[in-house]
Amino acid sequence: MEKAKISVIQLFAMMFMFELGSALVVSYGVTARKDAWLAILLGLCGGIALFFMYYALFRQYSNLPLTGYTRKIFGKYIGWIIGLSHTPYTFCTMLPEFCVTSVICCFHRHCHKHRY
Asked: Transmembrane residues, as ranges (predicted)?
């Protein structure tokens, strides 16, 4: 299997699209009411900080996956636990979006196939 590498722009685009997709499903500022802009601004700052953290780790450990450099940073056992705990998180956050996208694609194909 060929190892694929992504660029910084691709990493940023993936994180941006994930956050944008999540923002459409989960309304962050509902309880903030008129201060919703502040909740969005704080979320933006957190997202930018997270991006730069991922980018720094990506540059330093460009030849390792996330689970590989967590083992390198935190040690064999704690890094393995962190990597293992990241898998269900990724699965639970990506699965609903994958299901919605799949249903939209199936209906789109079905509607265009049976158009009169």
From this structure: 12-30, 36-57
Q: Summarize pLDDT for 8-48 with one digit per residue, the tens.
A: 788 778 777 777 666 655 665 567 677 767 777 787 788 88
Distance between first and last Cα of the chain: 44
Contacts of 70 (CB under 8 A, 6+ apart): 79, 82, 83, 86
Domain assignment of residue 114, given as a range: 65-116
Q: How far is CA 11 from CA 28, 42, 52, 56, 115, in A?
A: 23, 21, 11, 12, 38
Token pair of 102 as six digits: 């799949």
Cβ-contact 22, 46 below 8 angstroms: no
| DSSP code of residue 29 | T
Examine the domain organization and report whether 100 and 83 are in the same domain: yes
